Recover the amino acids of this structure.
């Protein structure tokens, strides 16, 4: 690995990013209701809101786009994509979608039923939204180490607690559980990977009860890389061998290609089940477009076919995970509390340990997001009381989540370590003066609670 963690690319095109003054940012925050989703991107210096669709494409991807076949049906670009997807997933049936949540919606139609349950490690927000809309209950069964921001090192904090899963099947009844959804990597608790051993055990248990297994695989390659680095027996296995083995334990895999497939738009619904594929085709025709383009232009299919392969490249993955871990080290050196180890696509700062004097009802992690933007023009995102908070359906009382974090997502191939140094310095300064920050009050939320972080408005306390 010596010399292997620096960028395996050089920069050919650059994009100017503007800076603003603290006074300007204070005004922008006020106008945005202290919700950074409502900021104009041009007012952001370093954008770590998400790793989704924010990747820099390669010269090979841009040149493939010129070869896009824009035929309505049966375009050459689809067959190229199909071959690339089969190579990485090892599954035969490929339905593209315009982005991941369209595939999530197919999962809702095909696998979810009102009043029934879907089990998982930690369901991604858009899947939880789909469950809410379909009247299904989404149950999180991540291991105890993954459910807290201050737990000690564990190599696979995204694992499902198999004993709790067995217990849930016994208590609810297998016929009440319509699917198990394994999210790789687990975004909600730090981009934490799931081990092959766990995927296999979960799949065996589900299959023994006739429950289908879905892999929510936006970060399939990063998860495979962690398996290779951390799980005995995988050190010499090619990444695509590992991705194919992961998929061998599932019936259907969905992917937001905006993550590990290194494209700005795109999604996939991939399955081994022909009946499920036919249902997905119908849903695509209804909601996305014809089967062979699924809501994407031919050029997008080309970029995705190439990006999926580049995302599995070992020198890229070594650099990628090393960059995220570099930011984690810089933050730890300044006393900033983070989830350890760092995961695949960002660093998660523990909002409760950062601001112990701010109660969860006053949104400590969102307060930190606001402080970081105000301090340095850096945009991160809350994954805590707002994003994961719920209300008791009977009493209406707030239920606060165990995890209370600010995610600093790192876009792929976009920022240098000097940008990350700015983030670390800014958070170090905020931490040194942390007692000066008070919390926030929620003044507005949208109609779907599981998605309220996108639309919420706040006031400073
Ligand atoms: C991003 C993501 C989605 C939703 O995909 P979009 O492309 O944003 O619509 C679903 N699941 C996971 C795990 C994701 O990371």
């Amino acid at each position: 690995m010596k010399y292997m963690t620096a960028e395996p690319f050089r920069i050919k095109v650059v994009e100017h990013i503007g800076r603003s003054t603290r006074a300007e940012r204070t005004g922008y925050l006020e106008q945005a209701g202290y919700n950074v989703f409502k900021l104009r991107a041009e007012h952001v210096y370093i954008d770590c809101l998400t790793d989704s669709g924010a990747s820099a494409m390669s010269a090979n991807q841009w040149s493939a786009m010129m070869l896009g076949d824009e035929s309505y049906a049966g375009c050459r670009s689809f067959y190229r994509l199909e071959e690339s997807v089969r190579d990485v997933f090892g599954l035969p049936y490929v339905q593209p979608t315009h982005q991941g949540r369209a595939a999530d919606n197919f999962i809702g139609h095909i696998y979810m039923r009102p009043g029934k349950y879907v089990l998982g490690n930690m369901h991604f927000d858009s899947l939880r939204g789909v469950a809410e809309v379909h009247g299904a209950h989404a149950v999180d069964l991540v291991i105890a180490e993954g459910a807290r921001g201050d737990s000690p090192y564990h190599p696979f904090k995204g694992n499902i607690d198999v004993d709790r899963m067995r217990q849930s099947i016994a208590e609810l009844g297998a016929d009440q559980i319509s699917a198990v959804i394994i999210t790789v990597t687990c975004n909600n608790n730090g981009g934490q990977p799931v081990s092959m051993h766990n995927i296999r055990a979960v799949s065996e248990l589900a299959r023994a009860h006739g429950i289908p297994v879905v892999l929510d695989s936006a970060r399939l390659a990063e998860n495979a890389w962690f398996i290779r680095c951390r799980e005995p027996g995988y050190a010499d296995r090619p990444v695509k061998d590992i991705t194919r083995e992961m998929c061998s334990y599932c019936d259907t895999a969905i992917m937001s290609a905006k993550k590990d497939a290194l494209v700005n738009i795109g999604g996939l619904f991939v399955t081994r089940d022909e009946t499920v594929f036919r249902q997905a085709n119908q849903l695509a025709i209804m909601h996305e477009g014809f089967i062979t383009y699924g809501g994407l232009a031919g050029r997008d299919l080309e970029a995705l076919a190439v990006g999926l392969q580049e995302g599995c490249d070992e020198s890229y993955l070594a650099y990628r995970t090393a960059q995220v871990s570099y930011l984690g080290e810089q933050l730890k050196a300044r006393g900033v509390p983070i989830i350890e180890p760092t995961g695949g696509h960002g660093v998660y700062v523990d909002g409760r340990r950062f601001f112990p004097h701010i109660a969860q009802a006053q949104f400590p992690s969102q307060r930190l997001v606001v402080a970081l933007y105000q301090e340095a023009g850096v945009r991160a995102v809350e994954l805590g009381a707002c994003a994961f908070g719920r209300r008791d359906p009977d009493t209406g009382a707030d239920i606060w989540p165990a995890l209370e974090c600010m995610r600093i997502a790192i876009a792929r191939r976009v920022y240098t370590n000097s940008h990350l140094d700015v983030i670390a310095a800014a958070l170090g300064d905020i931490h040194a003066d942390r007692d000066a920050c008070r919390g926030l009050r929620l003044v507005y939320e949208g109609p779907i609670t599981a998605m309220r972080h996108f639309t919420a408005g706040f006031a400073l306390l």
User: Anything to note?
Assistant: The chain has a mean pLDDT of 97. The domain at 59-310 is CATH 3.40.640.10 (Aspartate Aminotransferase; domain 2). The first strand starts at residue 46 and ends at 47. Residues 314-333 form the longest helix (20 residues).
